[in-house]
Amino acid sequence: MKKRLLAPAAMAALSLLATAPTASAAVTAPTGAKTVKTAAAGCELIKARENIKIRKSPRDNATALRLMYKNTTGCWHKGLVGGRYTKCGGKNWDGWGYITYRGTKGYVPNACVIPAN
Question: Do the Cβ atoms of 52 and 114 come closer than 8 Å?
Fold first, then answer.
């Protein structure tokens, strides 16, 4: 008897999952007087100030994974301290961001990205 009830219950659960909203839908979350655009939980949209290389690790001489083009948007996950750089007007800075851009995850200098509003 239990086997006969298991299949319909599983099908009902799967149909509920198919109709649930996805986490990647664009959402605006209020933060005080202005809103911040987000693409998923823990992700803030950012825009490249100029063409920048997405690196495998937070160092200027790390392997380049992809080029993020000027004025395109990506997803900012977290900031961290890494190797020093002078790109994008940074004067011996060491702040880096872990981002996702068109499916590539990697590191960019903080000075090279701004919030996408």
Answer: no
pTM: 0.65
Distances (CA, A) of 32 to 35, 44, 78: 7, 16, 21
Q: For 2-27, write each residue's pLDDT tens digit.
A: 445 444 444 444 444 343 333 333 33
Spatial distance between the Cα atoms of 30 and 27, rounded to a whole number of angstroms: 10
Say if CB 88 and CB 38 are below 8 A apart: no
